[in-house]
Amino acid sequence: MAESSLYRTYNRADLEFARGEGVWLETTDGRRFLDCAAGIAVNSLGHSHPHLVAALKAQADKLWHVSNLYAIEGQERFAQRLCEATFADKVFCTNSGAEALECAIKTARRYFYVRGEPERVTIVTIEGAFHGRTLATIAAGGQEKYLEGFGPKAPGFVQVPFGDHDALRAAIDETTAAILVEPIQGEGGIRPLPTECLRGLRALCDEAGILLIFDEVQTGVGRTGKLFAHEWAGIAPDIMAIAKGIGGGFPLGACLATEEAAAGMVAGTHGTTYGGNPLAMAVGNAVLDVILAEGFLEEVQAKGLKLKQALAGVVDAHPAIFEEVRGKGLMLGLKCRVPNGDLLARFREAGVLSVGAGDNVLRVMPPLTITEAELGEAVERIETAAKAMETGLERGAAE
To answer: Concatenated DSSP letters for 219-257?
Structure first.
């Protein structure tokens, strides 16, 4: 096989998919897999969802790209719908989660600049976080494995330990602009911030006169059974970054903000060539059609509870393999006692796709449209993988 011309930045699985439908993916050689990775929580409505396909095809026949030099009708509608459904008053459309976070960071810093406090630039984040792969967002996450080899860490970011409230309060000083957190750390291992902590963050930001930014790139758009995960705590941020599920597989993200927080983002302060183009807006609005339909999120909550309970049974039945099940809705994680990479291989052998995370976790994040029968099939396949792993451990011990 010829040497690939691609950058060697991915350790790709030996799988190549030719087609997908709903929660199922089929390889070029005809093998079928139940997709509990969903493109890393991207394919919120599964593969080849007919409403999304129709919206994209219809728009492709009309107009692809004009740039943000001109009004884009679909973008105005998309922003209005997001604002009506959330805390936000303003929306900036992007192509990805990292771009949405970049916009969020700039919005927070600009907020203080126009208020005559340009020294307030520092963003406080939590260890184990993942906010993207740009130079700014790897600095925001602060993880050495992502920072190594890319020169000086971008200034203006401070990390505090997960769950250390005293450290968080102590990190706030006269240079602080905002606190940035994921309501549930995705890459960090499906680690939820407890409801009382999210409420405490809101109170702390109000007390200190700083902004609260939520990274809902992975947790948002129905993934936890609410439109956005922070809604479970009954509070709202000043700024929020979203992506992944909002495009259902099409590259799309957005930064949402209150009128006050976004006041400094005037003409010329930020921009994007592709963000919010007609194709992306057609798909984004189609995703909202489905997610915002009556009863949809309640169904996600019910399916998430059923799946978590079933996975808890698998954990109990295989204590040598699993430690616990974490998460909310259809954003779940299995904390492993064996190397998660080894178990991931067993998952694939059993015909189910998952994705690894920090803290030795395997994520279970199927499309939100998964049926109850398919949930049962997923659990059966995970059980099969666990049994195969146990057999391998027993053989290894015997040898």
So the answer is: TTTTTTSSSSGGGGGT---SEEEE-GGGGTTS--EEEEE
